[in-house]
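@channel anyone free to eyeball this complex?
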Amino acid sequence: MFVEFVEGPLWYFSAAVFVLGVIWRLSGILRLRRRKKDLSIPRASAAVGALKAQFLHFVPHGGFTFRTLYHLVAGYAFHLGLFVLVLWAAPHIKFIEANIVAVPWEPLPRWGFIIAAQFAFAGLMLLWVRRISDPVMIKLSDRDDHVSAWLTFGVMLTGCMALQESVQALRVLHMMFVEIWLLYFPFSRLMHAFTFAFSRGYTGALFGRRGVVP
Amino acid sequence: MLGFVAVVAVIAYAALVGVTGSLNLDIAAQAQENGNVPGHALGNVSDSDVWRQIRRGEVGKVSIPDLKSAVLINAEGSAWRAARNGPISFWGGLVIAASLAFIILFNVIHGRIVLRRGRSGEVIPRFSQAERWVHWFAAGTFILLGLTGLALIFGRYVLKPLFGPDVFAIIANASLQSHNLFGPIFIVALVILLGLYMRDNLWQNGDLSWALKGGFIGDSHPKSWKYNLGEKAWYWALFFGGLALAGTGLLLEFPWLFDRLSVLQLAHVIHAISALGLIAFSVGHIYLGVWGVEASLDGMTKGYVDVNWAKEHHGWWADEVLENRPAVVEGAAEAAAEDAPPAPAE
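replying in thread with the prediction:
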């Protein structure tokens, strides 16, 4: 009964909340009132600035490299590890094929996604450790940051617990965590998975118009 | 009639001669000698001998790459299983229980070690950001591995009676997968941690006097360097125990690299003993760091400690830091003021 609920109604509900919630949040951002019209003569293209910023902000700028090295490495380890894990783990591909897109693709070998999982775990733990032990980060962090981190950790941990793919209870537990995560996503800073492009674009356009490399 | 009796008697005699193998019907047992069947009726070697050898782990011949399949019965496995479920579980559990009991007893008798002069409001740096990050990273993975490892070793005695065999099987399965996945992450964290903390954990003059004067158990607080002998003992336990744990853990993580199961069994025994010893030790470390000694945790969460704490617990180190201090730590007074208890109302 519980298994059917988690794999049926709860999955559809959480997926719907995720999709509609993300659309609602993004449309809210796009509908924000424009600032006052900038009457200055543009020195360069704002659009090019916005585009440049999308890519330039993937790496730290000049003097900040060393100071940001820790969260740069941890951040990339976590995000890339998670990205690979979600999209190329064999059980995930099977699930996506059965429930979302009926086109399968080649999964990573098992050792590959285990290494990806280890990078993702190490990265997430390092990022959270920084959050609780850096005097500035402690002050900047609020409950949403911690809930987001722990919920993501819960999703990953339950996934790791179900690695043998032989116990139904563990698979259902993992799925339940994913569903809770999907329900929380649109109302939290997890939205940065989508909004990062908007903030980079906005900053890039603003500086690009002034002829400054964003 | 007599003739009939005589015929029956002859047939019976013949049958008994056949059974006993003796004309005078001698039925004394003829035991095997050196494994040979009496009369060599079945050849020189008996089946029992063959099975005895197999039971003892005799290695046969196979023509496939997996040499382990040449062993029908892994006799060493029984010895390993008996050790794992016997003395290792028993003594390991006892050591952890004794460690917990000692901590509780210490807290009841001695109580929390408070700052005798209270907080001064002045702080000095103790741990860098890198030291704190790697400490918490290693601690997090250690706790995860510890909990899953304990579930694997003691689950059959604790979890199985509580939740039943089905739930225990699920917990054990989940624990094993998590343990295998987090193991390599811990190794990376451990190596960085050992490297970062090594310099201040080497032997220094005065370390022994700290212990001889009673360490943290006595009423006086003997002086020590940045780490006292107890803390150094924890570091070196982690160094040797942790490296043993890491090395044997890697062997167990990749079992297909070894043809001899005995290597893996030995690795498992060393792994379990090291882990149980470190878990027992860590109970004391966690107690003293989090609760047992007032204001200790600040060092690992904020990076700085109160000067009074430093002088009371690590006097020589405090003198050294205060002498070499270039200036007051920026923002320290404000940070200390936040931690200070509110002034009593007039």
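from a first look: The beta strands of chain B are 123-125, 304-306.
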